[in-house]
Amino acid sequence: MTETPVALATLRRGQNPVLRIYRAGYYVRIMDLMGFEWPDWAIAHLIGIEPSEVRQVLAASRRWPRPAFDGQVSVLTVWGRTTAGRPLIVVTRQRDDWTWVIIGARAMRAEELARFEQWESETRS
User: Fold this and answer.
1) pTM (predicted TM-score)
2) How far apart, in whole angstroms, are the C-alpha atoms of residue 124 and residue 11?
3) Cα 46 from Cα 20, distance rounded (Å)
4) What's the alpha-carbon Rg for the chain, to the nearest Å?
5) Distance, CA of 65 to CA of 83 (rounded, Å)
6) Residue 72 DSSP class
7) Element (H or E) spanning 54, and its range?
8) Per residue in 91-103, pLDDT tens?
């Protein structure tokens, strides 16, 4: 018997919708299925951030994906913490349905960290 995945959008107070797939008896977040590409130029432009820290944020179980638009380019920012607890924002751009290109990363500013910590406390399980 083949199981058909069921897609669900879940909403929590103060949280963007997160699309999840129910498959094989458990939920998988769509973001966990996405592939990331990382051009050499983007790695070379990291300042004070190790590539491993970016990967840690993207792989973290608690991360806050937030769409952004600067008037010309739409991106998805991923707010999260490294395994050491360092708060970072990783910027990605969608290449196709399942692939995102990492275009940058930086430390959170004070006001961003306050907003992120509020999100963390509101969505704590």
Assistant:
1) 0.72
2) 14
3) 31
4) 15
5) 18
6) S
7) helix 51-59
8) 999 888 888 899 9
